[in-house]
Design goal:
Layout lengths: L7 E5 L7 H8 L4 E5 L6 H7 L3 E6 L8 E6 L4 E9 L2 E10 L5 E9 L11 H8 L5 E6 L14 H12 L3 E2 L8 E3 L4 E3 L2 E5 L1 H4 L4 E4 L10 E4 L69
């Protein structure tokens, strides 16, 4: 089946204000969205832009970029948490997903700033997210690259992530051969956005793919049920012949022969497969979790 909608979406928006319609098309039908670097000073503005979602997380301020977790309004939440560590931002929720057979999953959005000068990726914070439930997944711009993970470059966040994965059984679900970030000043690209999951979540065999350009310097990551992800575009021209995302000519790729992962068309509107099924069980967590907005 083609043309299906993603269940989970991650995007570093590099400011949401100038790409609202593109992001609405991208996340249409998604159950949960990790939305980072939205640059809005209040989460109520995100709620107004995306009224079909419960919004938790962090507003943009001088301590760090805005980072939020959007949960479809029809879903039942057992818990919501927000953590900060310096400029690191992490928001998670334990959610029951009827579209996956009613399993309960802890889903977290974790933003780790580039380094230096920021402290490196916090493995304890990552571990807290992945231990929040028996089945858990973390989506985020971890700003982590390391050749052992399949990336071109190396940084301290990448070293931490490599060591974290080597010492434990957690699984990266995205393919580092598919770039998610494009540095126009250095004409370079790499995978720095990650989806890391418990083995039990990985066993669901969701498809993790890189999504279409919505005008950010990052490409989104999409998790879909097998057979329901949108078709990928044919292999395109070489990296030197392509422009980075947001420039209208297609994405700059991490390899000289770019992988065939980009969608030809933006996603159209759809209703979440999980929305409305457990509406009576929902709770408004804003009063109980003030740090989550």
């Amino acid at each position: 089946m083609t043309g299906g909608r993603p269940l989970l979406v991650h995007l570093n928006a590099n400011s949401i204000s100038n790409k609202v319609e593109e992001v609405r098309g991208l996340i249409a039908g998604a159950s949960i969205v990790s939305l980072q670097d939205h640059r809005l000073p209040a989460l109520d503005r995100l709620r107004a832009l995306f009224p079909g979602y419960q919004v938790f997380g962090h507003a943009h301020d001088n301590t760090g970029p805005g980072s939020a977790l959007l949960v479809s309004s029809g879903l039942h939440l057992r818990d919501v948490w927000c953590h900060t560590s310096g400029r690191h931002r992490c928001t998670g929720a334990t959610v029951r997903l009827p579209s996956l057979g009613g399993v309960e999953v802890a889903v977290a959005s974790y933003y780790a700033p580039p380094n230096p000068p920021a402290p490196a990726l916090d493995p304890d914070l990552l571990l807290r997210c992945l231990e929040a439930a028996a089945m858990a997944v973390v989506l985020g711009d971890l700003n982590a690259r390391h050749p052992a993970l399949g990336c071109r470059g190396t940084n301290s966040n990448g070293v931490v992530l490599r060591n974290f994965l080597e010492e434990r059984t957690y699984v990266p679900l995205n393919d580092a051969n598919e770039a998610t970030f494009f540095h126009t000043a250095y004409d370079s690209a790499d995978a720095i956005d990650w989806v890391v999951a418990t083995p039990s979540f990985a066993a669901l065999n969701l498809t993790c793919s890189v999504g279409p350009d919505v005008g950010s310097d990052h490409l989104p990551l999409l998790l879909s049920r097998p057979g329901r992800h949108a078709p990928r575009s044919p292999r395109g021209p070489t990296r030197s012949a392509m422009a980075p995302p947001g420039r209208g000519l297609g994405p700059l790729q991490a390899r000289a022969d770019p992988p065939s992962h980009l969608r030809a068309d933006p996603l159209a509107s759809a209703t979440s497969p999980d929305a409305g099924r457990l509406g009576r069980g929902n709770r408004d967590h804003r009063g109980r979790h003030p740090r989550c907005g």
